[in-house]
Amino acid sequence: MINYEQYLRTEKLPLIWCPGCGHGIVMKALLRAVHEAQLDKDKVCMVSGIGCSSRLTGYVDFNTLHTTHGRAIAFATGIKMARPEMHVIVITGDGDASSIGGNHLIHAARRNIDLTVVLFNNQIYGMTGGQVSPTTPYNAYASTAPYGSFENNFDIPQLVEAAGASFVARGTAYHAMPLTNYIVKAIDRKGFSLVEALSPCPTTFGRRNKQGDGVKMLQRQKDHTISQRKAESMPDSELNDKIITGIFVDIQKPECREEYQKLIDHKKGKGA
Amino acid sequence: MNTNTRVLTGNEACAEGAMAAGMRFYAGYPITPSSEIAEVLSGLLPKAGGVFIQMEDEISSMAAIIGASLTGTKSMTATSGPGFSLMQENIGYAVMAEVPCVIVDVMRGGPSTGLPTNSSQGDIMQAAWGTHGDHPIIALAPSSVREAFDQTIEAFNLSERYRTPVILLMDEIIAHLNEKVRMPAPDDYAVINRVKPNGPGEDYLPYAFTDTDVPPMADFGSGYRFHVTGLTHDPTGFPSTSHDNVQALYERFDRKINGRRDEIVSAEYFYMQDAEVVVIAYGSVARSVRHVVKTGRVQGKKIGMLRLKSIWPFADKLVSDATCNARAVLVPEMNMGQIVRQVRAVVHGVPVFAFNKINGAPITPQDLEKEIGEIYDQL
After folding, report:
1. Residues B221, A58: C-beta atoms closer than 8 Å
2. Quick check: helix, strand or coil at residue B170?
3. How far is residue B259's CA from residue B250's CA, in Å, rounded to a whole number?
4. Three-state DSSP class for A90?
5. Which helix or strand (DSSP H or E) is residue B169 part of?
6. How do residues B220-266 score in pLDDT, each as one tens digit?
7. pTM as predicted
8. Which of A31, A61, B191, B268 shows a CA-CA span of 20 to 30 A to A178?
C-alpha cells in the first residue's frame, strides 16, 4: 500500500485544482506509478509547463521545474541529455503540449528521447478561463468558441505515434488503475513515452458544454470510452462517439541519449 | 608559428573559449552569422564527453540549456538577431530562476530577417530589455578574435558567479574575421564555478538571501530536491505574490548585478590620459577607432578611445569619469544610436556626438576621420 505523503510536499496542500477536476486522480495514478517503478526520488525530475496540470510540480517531492508555456519538453530534453541517469517526467496539458508546445512534442517523439510525458487532457484551457484548445472537440463550446469550435481537433496518441514515439497510451481519470499501469509501462520504456490522461474539467469545459459536475463527467468518461481490445471487434458505426483507450504503441527503437553516448564513447576512445 | 598560435574566426574562438570555460552542453538552432559556433562545438563536445544537440528552434534551445544547467552542467547557445528575439521569454526565465548560462548573439541587421550576412550592432537594447519585466543583465562585446575567446570564458565566469544568464554580443565582423590568435594556456585564465550548498537537504533554501545576494545552487539529482519556477517566489523557491517577498526578490536581483558594477564593468583606455576628443566604441567599430586615434595622434590631434568591453550593466561612472576633461565625445555605432543614449545620460557639460551607420557595411577609418574633422571644426 502506497503512502502518498512520502511523495508530496504536504505543506503546499490544498491543491489549486477546482472541485470535480480530474487532475488529482491523475496525480495519484502518477505517484502510484512512480512508487511501483521504485524510482529514487533524488533521481526523478518532474518538469511542467503552464496551466492547471502544470501546477502539479509544486506539490510533489522530487526535483521539480515549472517552466514557460509549452516548453516543458524542451527543458526536459536539456536535463535528460545532460544527466541521462535522471528519470525525467513531463507533466503537461493539452494546450501546453499540443498547441504552443506542439513543435517540441513532435520533435521529442522523433528523437525518441527517453522522457515520460503525462498529458492531462481536459480539452480546454482551464487556468486561462476556458478558451478553445487543439483537443476541444468539433462543435464544443469554449470562451473563445461561443458558437462552437469550427476546427478539427488533434488525436494526441495518433500525433505522437506518427512522430515516432516508442510508447503511447490513453487512459482516463475514471479508469484510474489502468492509467497507473500505463504510466508504469511508460516509465519503464526506454524512449519517448506519452500517456494521455483524459481529465474532466467541470468548471470551464463541462459547464459550457452542459456535461454536469465532476461526478457526471466521470460517468460520461465511463460511458463514452472503450478499450482498444473491445473496439477491435466492434463495427465503426458503434464506435462513432467513443474514445478508445489502451496502449497504442509499445516498441523498442534507438533512444536519443543512448545513441549520443555511443558517439561520446567512440570519440573519447579515439582521443581529442 | 608558435604551436599556441592559430588562425581563427571570432565564432571559432568563441567555441574554443566555451570549451576552455568548461561548457559541456550546447543546444542551438542554425542561423547566420552564428552557425559556425554550433558547427565547431558539434565536433568538439563529444570528444570531451559533453553534449551537442541541434534543437527544433531557438525557443527550445534556450529551454534546453536552462534544463542542462540545472543539473550542474555549464551550458550555452548561440544565435543571431531573429533567433535572439525568439529566446527572450526563456532568457527571462533564466533571470527569474537564477540559472547560469551563456547566450551568444552574433548581431546582424534587423528588425525581422534583416541583413543575414552583414554586420550590425542593433541588439544592444534587445540584450537589456528584450524580455518582459524589469531586471538587470550582463552583456559583453568582444573587439577581436582573441577577445571572443577570452570574453566567452568571462561570460561563463560571470554567469556562474552571479547565477544569471550572460549575453555575449558579438558583431558579424568579429564573428567572421580571421585573425592570428595567441592561445592562452589553461593556467593563464581563471575558471569560476557556481557555489554549491553543503548543508543538509531539508535546510536548503535555493533562493536564500545571502551576503553576496547570490544563493548557493544545488544540482538537480544531487540529493537536494527543490522547486524552480518562473513565477515570483520566496527563498524556498515556491511561488509567492506577497508584496514584501516580490519587492525583496527584485531588489536582490538588482543588487547582485547593478550593485556590483565595479566587479563586472570593464573597458580599455587607449590614449586617454590627455584626450580632448574621446571616442567611445565597442565591438568591431573599435578597430577603426584605434586606427584613427593613432593617425590623429601623429597629426597632433589629442584623440583617445574608451573601448567598452562590457555593455551591460552600463559603465556609468567609468564613462562619466573618463570624459569629464574632454572637449567632445563621439560615439560611433552600427545602429541608430543605442549606446550614445546611455552616454548622454551620464556625460554632462561636454557635447556628445553620434555617428550612426546602419547599412551593413563597417564603420571605416575614413568615416571616422571625416566625422572627427567636423567635430574639431565645431570646437
Report:
1. no
2. strand
3. 13
4. strand
5. strand B165-171
6. 999 999 999 999 999 999 999 999 999 999 999 999 999 999 999 99
7. 0.97
8. A61
